[in-house]
């Protein structure tokens, strides 16, 4: 008797988004199951960010449905949001606040109070290694630390699902390593979908990849299957997304 597959925690079902006659994405369908870390790849303008905004309920689809933990993000967004942590590229941070002040602010917004609030703030400070800068103004922090602050605040409410748009964009190699290690730790008990342009990091963080190009999903499979011919991931990226 085989084990039943893990439940789908993220699902795109025939997702499309049109702006007039322009199709940002068309008929995109995939699932990310509980416990998976999946990399979402594609060239600039391919539709990655649009897809992620549709999955989080930030944008409404022109057609199709987006689900987080079984909740339709068009009709049940508030309940879905309790299960979701979304880290957009260049997410909003308040530069005059310290990380502790920001985390307290977002904890209040999430309805965390008392002992629970203190425990969650202390937990994400430790997980994201913010202790050294916890009282400094966010505007004075390095980009790597600001990214970790953003990651900490989306983890406050212990979401089951994380969607991250370019979490290592603009970071130096040391900062990339730090963020990568944090994502690897999170991937032990979270479902994660992340977009990235840094292909060498995909092997370290994900076991499965989705490729999107010109608004359409063109590959969904494991990294092992994709590279079993011995060619590196970046070569497959160029072959799959080349317009030449």
Account of the protein in words:
The structure is a single chain. With 244 residues, the chain is α/β, with parallel strands linked by helices. It has two domains: 1-83 and 162-169 and 188-244, P-loop containing nucleotide triphosphate hydrolases (Rossmann fold); 90-158, no CATH class. It is built from nine helices and ten strands. It has helices at residues 48-56, 77-81, 99-109, 114-127, 143-155, 173-186, 199-205, 223-226, 233-241, and strands at residues 8-19, 22-33, 37-41, 63-68, 71-72, 84-87, 161-165, 191-195, 208-213, 216-222. A six-stranded mixed β-sheet has the order 6-7-8-3-9-10, with helices on both faces. Helix 4 packs antiparallel against helix 5 (143-155). The chain is globular. The mean pLDDT is 89.
Topology:
Blueprint: E1 8-19, E2 22-33, E3 37-41, H1 48-56, E4 63-68, E5 71-72, H2 77-81, E6 84-87, H3 99-109, H4 114-127, H5 143-155, E7 161-165, H6 173-186, E8 191-195, H7 199-205, E9 208-213, E10 216-222, H8 223-226, H9 233-241
Helix pairs in contact: 3-4, 4-5, 5-6
């Amino acid at each position: 008797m085989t084990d039943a597959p893990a439940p789908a925690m993220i699902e795109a079902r025939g997702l499309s988004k049109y702006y007039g006659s322009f199709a940002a994405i068309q008929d995109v369908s995939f699932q990310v199951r509980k416990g998976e870390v999946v990399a979402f790849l594609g060239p600039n303008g391919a539709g990655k960010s649009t897809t992620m905004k549709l999955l989080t309920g930030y944008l409404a689809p022109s057609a199709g449905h987006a689900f987080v933990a079984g909740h339709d993000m068009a009709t049940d967004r508030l309940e879905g949001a309790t299960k979701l942590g979304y880290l957009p590229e260049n997410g909003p941070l308040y530069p005059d606040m310290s990380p502790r002040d920001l985390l307290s602010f977002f904890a209040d917004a999430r309805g965390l109070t008392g002992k629970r609030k203190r425990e969650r703030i202390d937990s994400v400070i430790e997980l994201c290694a913010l202790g050294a800068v916890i009282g400094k103004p966010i505007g004075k922090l390095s980009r790597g630390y600001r990214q970790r602050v953003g990651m900490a605040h989306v983890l406050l409410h212990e979401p089951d699902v994380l969607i991250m748009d370019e979490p290592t964009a603009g970071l130096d190699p040391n900062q990339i390593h730090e963020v990568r290690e944090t994502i690897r730790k999170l991937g032990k008990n979270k479902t994660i979908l992340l977009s990235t342009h840094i292909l060498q990091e995909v092997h370290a963080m994900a076991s499965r990849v989705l490729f999107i190009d010109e608004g359409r999903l063109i590959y969904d499979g494991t990294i092992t299957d994709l590279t079993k011919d011995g060619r590196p991931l970046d070569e497959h990226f160029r072959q799959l997304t080349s317009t030449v």
